[in-house]
Design goal:
single chain, 404 residues, alpha/beta, Enolase-like, domain 1, TIM Barrel, 2 domains, 10-stranded mixed beta sheet, 3-stranded antiparallel beta sheet, 37% helix, globular
Length: 404
């Protein structure tokens, strides 16, 4: 039958960084692509797909997207977590891609059509000191950016999250073991308000500023920081404390009116439910790939909409152009979509994953190609095989391990 899956292949490659790509082919030759990248654990999800899930897809009807999602989630018994949900997410993306190509429509049309003319996005500006950061901000403004995440080095610290000596920031190091860095929370909390004050003075009130604490602070420290940055009118303060301790966000919320964003490490609606239903955050940060694909992300966003929370999906460079495409299509068609993170990609990645989506003047467009609008250059991917890479490990100044 023409509407049956005949093949599901897993491609692991490293065009400047590691990606896990799923390719599903139907009997009539329609190909759907999905992204299954989990930074630093790529081979785990590749094995989950190739050894356990791909064989189950053969002979299934690719149009039964929700049924396949439930089959893979509930049928496995051992569920949730980034590896399982990224695998399911890749399959779900590929099935939506196939459906769009069969219907000759872009995915955003299948999701109900546009609700906005373009998808707002933010990029990353960083510098080891304030003058270097201000130069980076200028570069973003020159590209038409209206929203900018700003990160700075901290005096006395050799390494700081979100800051690099390389203009193309990539936290994952290609080495046999993770790199390590030391973090001084007090020095950081003292320094960040100075950084934000300098940037706000430079850009004025019409540019939206964001900042990421990256899970480093205790609830009390997080509350102090959120309160101290109120004068700079942030678009959001991200990941102020480890996301697992969700009640801690109530403590921060009660201390400050600074908008809060969290959830990039969440994988299901049940991870997000408490924070959303209690209105403890303003933006939910789940990535489409790590939260079970388009089908499950729609449910997260629907729950968020009821409670006045917006979507602000995770979009670092380890999310491939396929997953970014899925997120852009959702952004174009989801009413409570707030903003899309977009770090950009090296030229080689754009060549490896040619795509219909585009960035210009601070916004993203999904394009009108059928499906997700992304292809792959398999020869180029094959020429760049997997290379071991790990995200860093953070330690406090006394040597004890801290959330990176």
């Amino acid at each position: 039958m023409s509407d049956r899956i005949v093949k599901a292949e897993v491609l692991v490659s490293s065009p400047t960084r590691n990606f896990v790509t799923l390719r599903i082919t139907t009997a009539d030759g329609i190909v759907g692509l999905g992204d299954a990248t989990v930074n630093g654990r790529e081979l785990a999800v590749a094995s989950y797909l190739a050894d356990h899930v791909a064989p189950l897809l053969v002979d299934l009807d690719p149009g039964r997207i929700e049924d396949i999602w439930q089959y893979l989630y509930r049928g496995a018994y051992w569920r949730r977590g980034p590896v399982t949900m990224a695998a399911i997410g890749a399959i779900d993306m590929a099935l939506w891609d196939i459906l769009g190509k069969r219907a000759n429509l872009p995915v955003y049309q299948l999701l109900g059509g546009r609700v906005r003319d373009a998808v707002p996005t933010y990029g990353h500006a960083f510098g080891w000191d304030i003058p270097a950061l201000l130069d980076a901000v200028d570069a973003h403004l020159a590209k038409g950016a209206k929203h900018i995440r700003v990160q700075s080095g901290v005096p006395g610290l050799d390494k700081v999250y979100g800051v690099s000596k390389d203009p193309n920031y990539e936290p994952a190091g290609r080495a046999a073991r993770p790199s390590e860095e030391r973090f001084d929370a007090d020095a950081y909390i003292r320094h960040v308000p100075k950084v934000l004050a300098a940037v706000r003075e430079k850009v004025g009130d019409d540019v939206h500023l964001l900042h990421d604490a990256h899970h480093r602070l205790t609830p009390t420290q997080a509350a102090r920081l959120a309160k101290s940055v109120e004068p700079f009118n942030l678009f959001w303060l991200e990941d102020v404390t480890p996301a697992e301790d969700q009640e801690a966000m109530r403590f921060v919320r009660n201390a400050s009116t600074t908008p809060l964003a969290i959830g990039e490490v969440f994988n299901t609606i049940w991870d997000c439910q408490y924070l959303i239903e209690n209105r403890l955050i303003d933006y939910i940060r789940t990535a489409v790939v790590h939260a079970g694909g388009i089908s499950h992300s729609r449910k997260i966003y629907a729950l968020a909409e009821v409670h006045g929370v917006k979507a602000g999906p995770h979009g670092p460079s380890d999310i491939s152009p396929i997953a970014l495409a899925a997120s852009i299509h959702m952004g174009a068609s989801t009413h409570n979509f707030g903003i899309q993170e977009y770090m950009g990609y090296a030229d080689l990645v754009h060549e490896a994953f040619p795509h219909a989506w585009s960035y210009d003047d601070g916004v993203l467009q999904p394009g009108d190609a059928p499906g997700l609008g992304v292809d792959i250059d398999e020869g180029l991917l094959s020429a760049h095989p997997y290379t071991t890479a790990y995200l860093p490990v953070a330690r406090r100044m006394d040597g004890s391990v801290l959330d990176w």
